[in-house]
Structure prediction request, 143 residues.
Amino acid sequence: MTTKPPSLDAQALRDLVNTSSPQKCQCALGPCAGWESMTEDRWPGPYMTAVGSLRADLAEGGNAAGSEPTFEEFHPQGTRYDSPLAPFAPQFFPCNRSDVFSCNRCQRVLLRYTEFGGYYVDHRVRALNADLVVDAPLPDAAA
Prediction:
């Protein structure tokens, strides 16, 4: 039986990065400043420790509306999904479908999620930047 990693929020993400001491990246992932596609064989599993999750626990009611997490993205400054300057907004896609890992070699904190399409599976990873973490609420569905 595996233990579920704790659910994290924006402040917990900032705290994780601020308490780590990143060194020069030594893993096969590279810089991962934007959401980078990654084959499963590039994921340095033995060096990664799961430290939390941003995924809603649907068994406990999911998000505020009690439904599937949103696919809406958060880009108030006009960034795009793959931009190194895109914010990390835990309640928005793709952060809301990510698990959080710490690299035991370089001490970076990374978010990882898997995108599923009609005929493909695409693993994505992005190094966390505390300066880009925002605690943005989802728009009110009733408005």
Remarks:
- The first strand starts at residue 36 and ends at 38.
- The CA atoms of residues 70 and 92 lie 6 Å apart.
